[in-house]
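Why run this: before we spend reagent on co-expression, it is cheaper to look at a predicted model of the complex and decide which construct boundaries make sense. The entries below are exactly what would go into the expression plan.
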Amino acid sequence: MQESDSIIDHLFEDEKLTDKQKKIIEAAIDSFSEKGYSGTSTSEIAKKAGVAEGTIFRHYKTKKDLLLSIIAPMLAKSIAPFVIKDLYKILDTKYDSYEGFLRAMIANRYVFLKHNLPLFKILIQEIPFHPELKEQFMEHIAKKVYTRFESLVVYFQEKEQIINIPPASVIRFNITTIMGYFFTRYLFFPDADWNDDEEIEITIQFLLHGLSPLAKKEDDSP
Amino acid sequence: MQESDSIIDHLFEDEKLTDKQKKIIEAAIDSFSEKGYSGTSTSEIAKKAGVAEGTIFRHYKTKKDLLLSIIAPMLAKSIAPFVIKDLYKILDTKYDSYEGFLRAMIANRYVFLKHNLPLFKILIQEIPFHPELKEQFMEHIAKKVYTRFESLVVYFQEKEQIINIPPASVIRFNITTIMGYFFTRYLFFPDADWNDDEEIEITIQFLLHGLSPLAKKEDDSP
Amino acid sequence: MQESDSIIDHLFEDEKLTDKQKKIIEAAIDSFSEKGYSGTSTSEIAKKAGVAEGTIFRHYKTKKDLLLSIIAPMLAKSIAPFVIKDLYKILDTKYDSYEGFLRAMIANRYVFLKHNLPLFKILIQEIPFHPELKEQFMEHIAKKVYTRFESLVVYFQEKEQIINIPPASVIRFNITTIMGYFFTRYLFFPDADWNDDEEIEITIQFLLHGLSPLAKKEDDSP
Amino acid sequence: MQESDSIIDHLFEDEKLTDKQKKIIEAAIDSFSEKGYSGTSTSEIAKKAGVAEGTIFRHYKTKKDLLLSIIAPMLAKSIAPFVIKDLYKILDTKYDSYEGFLRAMIANRYVFLKHNLPLFKILIQEIPFHPELKEQFMEHIAKKVYTRFESLVVYFQEKEQIINIPPASVIRFNITTIMGYFFTRYLFFPDADWNDDEEIEITIQFLLHGLSPLAKKEDDSP
DNA sequence: AATGAATGAGTATTCATTCAT
DNA sequence: GATGAATGAATACTCATTCAT
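The model came back. Tokens follow.
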């Protein structure tokens, strides 16, 4: 929460926000992530932001508007690395091993999520209750990200670097394993002692072995 | 939701519930899982349950009481198989391979979660907003389940059936991979075409290879 | 409140009360006197009395019924000594001085009020809000008591024992002075150190001198 | 009640009240004095004041807040003449007889109470149910007023104008006699025919004779 | 742009009362 | 007679939103 400023400056860099607007968004992120959208009142946000109640509604027509205007840039930035050339770089030049790609992606998303934790919490907590959010999420993440990811998986499957199972399953294992670490690390046990480097290394090894084609062969031929 | 009756009959079998009380709980589960605790009004629950609003408060002092009295048995039943002899069976007789244990546990929990989906949704959605819930969850799941699971992991590590990494990480991989399937299957894409048997088989293979000590050896000795 | 039992046994001696009924009345007196009629809920009374909520309404059609059935005997007993022969005794034989009468009356009413303090509190607190109560009070106290009292005052005025001002004023001075002591003693400063005998003596002297015809004369003829 | 406006303007002159706020206070005084605090609903006050129910809670956080904010200035103004120099005037210059003081004080408080009757009713009716009120009352009235009054009584006792009994008793006689008149006059029998001047004169005479030191002597010497 | 008073529908909860057992 | 589940109207209070300033 102390990093709210930077989050906002980063996530909302394109939009011109007045001082009060920034404070409203900060306060909203803070409260939404802590008590949920329904559990947070606009008056509470106003008080925390140090503005009059009416001011919120001058900038955001409704409370829901405020929520969406907070989540939208988060969604956009989430998929950023997948829609721009970064991914091509991975494919074309930099990393010609699946391991290389994995390490690059984890490093990249790890930093992003770490810096947008409260926003991320809001996103995953509110998605179930707001169909528009779910739709946007599906369209952006599920479609755009998935498509890129799929071709990438097929590419490495053809190079026989990963096992030959449905790409959807491969993607699922990747995401649940990586996000699983992230949830465990930051949402469930944020206060435990964590050796991030080691843990990430173990996680990468687990993924690589789990998806290794050799492993599969061994299992098949007695 | 159509199975609410059976859920209730099953989860609340010990308690003597009046007819109206059952209806209240059904309605509450339905609404809470759909719109969240904060987003659900007691008047809505009353209407859906076909009772007067006052009736709710005759049985549950507060709205939060209602929530807790719904989740408590869910938590208890969640850990049931881990605290009773079932686990010993797994260790002692039935399954002397990690694969055997894995298959048994997935089958068991899969059925349970499938039958308590709405309740499960409520649990994971509300935990972040209710410290008491988190505490109960930690105490029941994290402590009791984790302890059993850990000794089990060590046991199979000693039998050299799984890789020699911190048991906590092994447990994490198991849970995130299995739950990851469950979330994807029932919460994110419940409408997709799923071949459960195949998907579970793939998932088990992924886990086994990811945790296999052979894989590790191969990796270590070129 | 500890004396509730005795109050009830005494005030409600004529009526046949079941055990539960007694407990209801005790609880009602306790709560009404402490929090007022409006501020007391029937469920609270039921709980305090250790009976089911419905039981109250089996004996008293409404909550107000309960209030009235509590105050009615109090009102009746309040005027008892004024409507029976007691007063004639005072006039005829026992006390042929106003002082004698005063001492007798104070002693008599002092004991009565002291033993019915909670009931008395209820009476004076609720009268302003219940026209029926006010009516009953007027009819019983104001009419019956006043009439007796007036003839008594006139009697002593004729005997030149008290000053010759409107009897209504004489009665007012008597009542406000005596009740004034009682309020100060039991309602305002019940925890102070009180020497009742001395205080009552001073009060009687004050009344006697204030109403003395000599005093008046002295004051008139220098 | 018809004078509510003037009461408010007078009692709340220091505070800046919006139009609606004034109406809320008027309505609250009206209802509280008529049906008691517990017996009055906020919706009733809102309706009577011609404002939305929410408006009440914008200005007063709770219903009790409204009550206290009504009574506080009443308490303050009640003791006003006792804490400022007025009293010294009485002692120093104007009145060097107890009778003079008595007449001045009665005249002064008579006007005040007459103009604040509903507020006064609320005060005495609600004090028994609200410990904070009792505390405030004790602190303001019982302490400040009493202290001034006591030194005054001692002063006149030394001048041998009033009888030599405990000052507390003298004060009690004064207050109960004067308030007794006020209660009888305005609360119990407001509809009777009252000759205020005459009645007050009789009351003053009663007090003076009752407290006269001569009377005492007569009584002492056979 | 910003305020904050005002709103009225809505909130969780309490109430006196009823009624089948 | 006694119970306690059930009621629905009422309660104190909150909410998102509007609007005149």
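Chain D has one domain: 64-220. Residues 18, 20, 51-55, 58-59 of chain D lie near DNA strand E (CB under 10 Å from a C1'). Bring this page to Monday's planning discussion.
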